[in-house]
Design goal:
Strand order of the largest sheet: 4-5-2-7-6-8-12-13-17
Structural class: alpha/beta
Shape: globular
Number of strands: 20
């Protein structure tokens, strides 16, 4: 049950207590142990069709004892050729018990290309970045990277190898995809755009858009291939310009669902996590001091420390370190690239990086026991806390409606007094953190804050946040973009378009309803508590006085929701007919609520059984009807009339949703 559902239910409960209405129901719609695998050094794969179908490099099983040693230079290593795949082997020496290998298998496809077709300038560090990343995950963690660089990083080479590795994954095996190189945005017409990664043989910009897309790797297709894989943990790191297009892939969430789960618990659950160098409109940056891309250099720095970290924690550390070195990541546009993160499975799963030196600690954490003086002792989670990174609150705590309402009022008052708004630095830092996770409410506040700045770069960042919010498909996102257009935050001012977006979002109505419910809350708690009869009576009177404004706010909110149900635009549907007939029953001198209720309940059943409607539509319609039923069961004639009229009005044709 989401937050808005709980709040609406609380409102219904309050009204029941105030008016003695019984039987009201309310539903709300809105919006791993095995022998150690000693991996080989980086396996470099030829991008030929024979190589793509070759077998994987063999892996030596060493049992539960090993010591990771530094790799020798490639020229000194023995080379074995297996089905066109060149394998460079490192020597190992068994010296001490370090604990069971915590993975079944962790493979990776690491891609880097400085050249991306005839139209892009040559990069300096993409190929060395890929090699750096491959080495750190192999040397520090013992993973199995396959490296494609330069002319081997073709569209076919990357696609075939990605498919081969993903198809070969077993349910308890993990995979990492890494790309360093050029990224690009390709437009087809006015309304269709694609974020792509450009391989070595990318098409020139002189070709038409579709040919360019066909010669590239769309970010969406890569993420979708990870989502559809049967592997356990699927991860991607995109170090390229415009890699933030990952935020536009459907199914991404700003919620990690990691609360209360230690790494060994999250490791059991599957995950799909993606990290990008910046937002969809931002450039990734190479830096001569770092001798590489800012994102990759920082990722490798964090990983080389060998601390046990979940993949999300890797992102938190990388983003925070980059922000403390903002001069290193200034894009050509003058705005700092802001790394992005998305989760595509919301079940609390997360991959953990575990270095061999931590295998024994991991096993203790997993089994929650250890040997002390020859006896098995149970180990508490608290004992192990110091070994694992916590999820910082600024990344895990949603920006609430209360916070949005509070600061919107602060901004409005500041506009009247023409005084600057002072927001605590830690608050802004939290908004930025949540925005990087996809929290549209955080983006609303950043849009308002940065949009008022006299610095052009801040205003441009405001519009960037507004557009990113819009891409989340949330009502608050459309509201943010509307505010940006209405006030000219980093974009040419267009009040009519902005107001249209704001009205369509319904976000203001929701905030108003939320505020009214919040006002009722203390009285509801007093009424439910153990206070005196006089106190309860006073609380009930307060609820009665506040219920009117709350119902009015609910009516305005529901009217907006009614306009968002496309199914009701067909006046011949059973639902529309039921709504029209129910309205006739309600407006009568002696309203027939029972008939209207039975009619709409039957309409709900028809919708539920409809085979041509997908589950999303069914849920949307039935939850909307339920709101009308609430008013009917409460025998609230005015609210019933208002909601029914709004639903019927939504049956008429409306303008297409505007494209910003």
């Amino acid at each position: 049950m989401d937050k808005k559902t709980i709040i609406i239910i609380a409102l219904a409960a309050a009204l029941v207590m105030a008016f003695g209405v019984m039987g009201i129901s309310l539903a709300y719609f809105a919006g791993k142990s095995s022998a150690i695998q000693q991996p080989t050094a980086v396996a470099e794969v030829n991008a030929t069709s024979e190589a793509q179908t070759g077998s994987s490099a063999s892996v030596e099983q060493l049992g539960a004892k090993m010591e990771m040693t530094d790799s020798k230079p490639a020229s000194e290593l023995p080379v074995e050729k297996v089905d066109e795949i060149v394998v460079e082997e490192t020597s190992t020496e068994v010296v001490e018990e370090i604990g069971p290998y915590p993975y079944e298998k962790v493979s990776a496809l690491v891609v880097g290309t400085n050249i991306s077709g005839p139209s892009m300038s040559e990069l300096k560090y993409a190929e060395s970045d890929a090699e750096r990343f491959a080495k750190v995950i192999e040397k520090t963690y013992g993973f199995m990277p396959t490296l494609l660089q330069g002319e081997k990083a073709t569209k076919a080479g990357i696609s075939n190898e990605l498919k081969r590795q993903l198809d070969s994954l077993k349910p308890d095996e993990d995979f990492i995809f890494y790309f360093a190189g050029h990224g690009h945005t390709i437009e087809i017409g006015k309304d269709e755009r694609y974020g792509v990664l450009l391989p070595y043989d990318a098409a020139g910009f002189d070709l038409d858009a579709q040919d360019q897309i066909d010669a590239a790797l769309t970010i969406q297709s890569i993420v979708e291939s990870l989502k559809s894989s049967k592997g356990r943990h699927l991860m991607a790191i995109f170090d390229s310009c415009y890699s933030g297009w990952v935020t536009k892939v459907e199914g991404g969430s700003d919620s990690l669902s990691l609360d209360g789960k230690l790494p060994y618990e999250s490791m059991k659950l599957p995950s799909v996590h993606v990290m990008a160098a910046g937002k969809a409109e931002e450039l990734a940056v190479e830096n001569d001091d770092l001798k590489g891309g800012a994102l990759t250099a920082t990722v490798c720095e964090v990983l080389a420390e060998g601390r046990m970290r979940k993949f999300p924690s890797l992102f938190f550390n990388v983003k925070d370190r980059l922000e403390s070195n903002e001069a290193l990541i200034q894009g050509l546009s003058g705005a700092a690239a802001t790394p992005q993160f998305r989760s595509f499975r919301q079940n609390g799963g997360a991959f953990s990086f575990i270095a061999p030196s931590s295998y024994k600690t991991w096993e203790i954490a997993r089994s929650k026991s250890m040997l002390v003086d020859g006896e098995t002792v149970t180990v508490s989670d608290d004992y192990l806390d110091e070994y694992f990174d916590e999820v910082p609150e600024k990344y895990s705590e949603d920006v609430t409606e209360d916070e949005v309402s509070e600061y919107l009022e602060i901004f409005a008052e500041a506009d009247k007094s023409e005084e600057p708004v002072e927001v605590p630095e830690e608050k802004v830092d939290a908004w930025e953190a949540r925005a990087s996770m996809g929290d549209s409410e955080a983006m609303v506040l950043l849009t308002e804050l940065l949009g008022r700045s006299s610095d052009e770069r801040d205003r441009n960042r405001a519009f960037s946040h507004a557009f990113s919010a819009f891409d989340t498909k949330a009502d608050s996102g459309k509201f943010a973009l509307g505010r940006a257009y209405s006030n000219g935050y980093g974009v040419e001012k267009d009040e009519s378009h902005g107001e249209k977006l704001i009205k369509e979002s319904g976000f203001e109505e929701w905030l108003n309803l939320y505020k009214q419910i919040d006002d009722l809350n203390s009285d509801v708690q007093a009424l439910k508590g153990d206070g005196t009869p006089e106190g309860k009576l006073n609380a009930a009177q307060n609820i009665a006085n506040k219920a009117g404004p709350a119902l009015k706010a609910a009516g305005g909110f529901m009217k907006n929701l009614a306009n968002k149900i496309p199914f009701l635009k067909d006046p011949t549907t059973v639902v529309t007919k039921a709504l029209e007939d129910s309205l006739i029953d309600v407006v009568a001198a002696n309203p027939d609520y029972d008939s209207a209720i039975k009619r709409l309940e039957k309409a709900q059943e028809r919708v539920t059984k409809a085979k041509k409607l997908d589950d999303e539509y069914k849920s949307l319609i039935n939850e909307g009807i339920e709101e009308v039923l609430v008013a009917l069961r409460a025998k609230d004639q005015d609210l019933s009339k208002e909601l029914l009229s709004a639903f019927i009005a939504s049956s008429s044709p409306t303008e297409e949703e505007p494209v910003p």
